[in-house]
From TrEMBL:
Keywords: Membrane, Transmembrane, Transmembrane helix. It comes from Prochlorococcus marinus str. MIT 9201. This is EamA domain-containing protein. Residues 1-133, 159-289 form the EamA domain. Pfam families: EamA. The chain crosses the membrane at residues 6-23, 35-54, 60-80, 116-133, 154-177, 189-209, 221-239, 245-263, 270-289. Belongs to the EamA transporter family. One of its GO terms (cellular component) is membrane.
Length: 290
């Protein structure tokens, strides 16, 4: 039960944070936003390193660092770039692929065999998310740099984000299956990996844009870090520890549905078909959970 609740909590906190981050992507580079949010989140969770005993096997630390580089360093940067181009709900809706990708990767690489009922639920969730996305096939509200003829290119960033996130999650799940490391400690190690990668990529140049924001914007940005990065990744790690990656990811992928709460802010119309397939999605989740 804790894994299920953590998944819905992570999806909610991540969706809210993305809504705030999207407004910042119009002013600052995605890589700068990702680096600053990870540094602040890392500082908040520094006490977790107290539990990093010398006896901790280096291979697990190395795997988690790689997980952070791929899942947070690369994945979140692609994610933020996608927010800039296609908006919050459409970006989150590309997670139509993530439950199936996660379930397949879990079965192939770590022998997590799901029941037929779980597979049916995952497929229902994926189809529902795809149709929710397809019903919003206009791009007139997004800040795009692509014409409609080559609009397929805008999905490069969210697809790479999903791919990196699934790989990072798979590595985390592998560590939890083989060690007794806590979700809090693994979160901190993953953040460290992402920071090392991003700051090296930027040539050790740090753009601390937070000082240029108004106080109200600073508070919103810091809140988004606490919710989306600290709480979001911590809850995500609890999910990876508690549930098979395919099931966990199907629950985490409810972000597009939660983002319906922000539809009015992003000038999105909630149609009857979207409501119907949202209910269909919950049917799939019920099959997964029960």
């Amino acid at each position: 039960m804790i894994g299920i609740l953590s998944a819905f909590g992570a999806a909610t906190s991540w969706t809210f944070a993305c809504f705030i981050w999207r407004s910042q992507t119009q002013k600052y580079k995605s890589i700068d936003i990702n680096l600053i949010k990870n540094i602040i989140a890392f500082v908040v969770f520094i006490p977790a390193l107290i539990n990093l005993f010398p006896a901790t096997e280096l291979k697990y630390i190395f795997i988690l660092l790689i997980s952070g580089i791929i899942g947070i360093g690369l994945g979140d940067t692609f994610y933020l770039k996608s927010l800039q181009t296609i908006g919050t709900r459409k970006t989150l809706s590309i997670e139509t692929l993530s439950p199936l990708m996660a379930a397949l990767s879990g079965e192939i690489f770590i022998n997590e065999n799901l029941t037929p009922k779980s597979w049916i639920g995952i497929i229902i969730v994926s189809i529902s998310l795809f149709i929710i996305l397809k019903k919003e096939n206009d791009f007139k509200h997004a800040n795009l740099h692509f014409s409609e003829k080559n609009s397929f290119k805008i999905f490069t960033f969210p697809f790479l984000s999903v791919l990196c996130a699934v790989i990072g999650g798979l590595f985390s799940r592998m560590v939890f299956l083989q060690s007794n490391l806590s979700p809090l400690l693994t979160t901190e190690i993953r953040l460290l990996g992402a920071i090392i990668f991003l700051i090296t990529l930027k040539g050790f140049k740090l753009n601390f844009f937070l000082k240029n924001m108004e106080k109200k914007q600073q508070k919103r940005f810091l809140l988004s870090i606490l919710l989306g990065t600290n709480l979001g990744i911590l809850l995500q790690q609890i999910v990876f520890k508690s549930l098979p990656i395919g099931i966990g990811w199907a629950l985490l992928s409810t972000s597009p549905v939660i983002s319906l709460l922000f539809a009015k802010n992003e000038e999105r119309e909630i149609t009857k078909k979207i409501i119907f397939f949202t209910c269909f999605l919950f049917l799939g989740l019920t099959l997964i959970i029960l």
